[in-house]
Amino acid sequence: MEIHRKASEHGWIEVITGSMFSGKSEELIRRLRRAQIARQKVQIFKPVVDNRYGEDQIVSHSDMRIASQNVRSSEELVARVDEDTEVVGIDEGQFFDLNLPTACDTLANRGKRVIVAGLDQDYLGRPFEPMPQLLAIAEYITKTLAICVVCGEPANHTQRLVASSDRVLVGATGLYEARCRHCFDPYLADTGKGKEQDAERQRTKP
Ligand code: ADP
Ligand code: ZN
Q: Of 149, 155, 170, 178, which sees the most CB atoms within 10 A?
């Protein structure tokens, strides 16, 4: 689905959602770049996680980059959107507070095109708030799938490879991988099997 319309008086919400490595950030960056090429005023935000301020940019796993602003809450995000901004991009939607859907609604009601990327499930396969609530109110939804690193089928799950019961454990390579329904094992890291399987795959790589 491609949304070509120029931002008008009527705003709307687009959500890009799926597992890690499924291309959410790439798709978000692609849409935001196209809006910039169309000379629309674009503002891009990502949340501060665990009080850590990352770089002021969104970076995809394939190293696509776009400048962004760090915000601590959805309230701060709304406050930082300029009157004349036409497109608002938001990455890592799952790390925002539960007011994110209301914040997006407020911006869309002010005529902005709001595009949010975020994980739909956590490492146990549970819906990752506030993404489900956002999906319910969005006009457009794109579900992205990664490739299962075990079997090569489309992957809808984020497999955690290290033992931790924290819902938020930030990182990618070595901590998480994409897996399909069949190969996903939410309890894998508990037993230490994850690391062994990973090492075995590295050893047997062609
Ligand atoms: P997301 O934001 O959903 O985590 P990104 O947009 O950051 O995803 O990265 C997607 C890119 O990750 C792909 O284009 C590809 O280059 C790379 N990649 C690494 N592992 C995988 C995988 N298992 N399946 C698909 N893409 C992968
Ligand atoms: Zn698989």
A: 155
Alpha helices, DSSP H only, in the chain?
A: 24-37, 74-80, 100-109, 131-137, 193-203
How many CB atoms sit inside 10 A of residue 14's CB?
23
Ligand 1 close to Cβ of residue 25 (< 6 A)? yes
Name all domains of the chain by residue range, CATH numbers in brackets.
Answer: 1-144 (3.40.50.300), 145-206 (3.30.60.20)
Each residue's pLDDT tens digit, 165-185: 787 887 766 899 999 999 999
- Reading the block at residue 79, the tokens are 């406050």
- 119 Cβ below 6 A of ligand 1: no
User: CB within 8 A of 98, min separation 6: which ones?
Assistant: 129, 130, 133
Over the stretch 101-153, which tens digit does the pLDDT of each residue have?
999 999 999 999 999 999 999 999 999 999 999 999 999 999 999 999 999 99
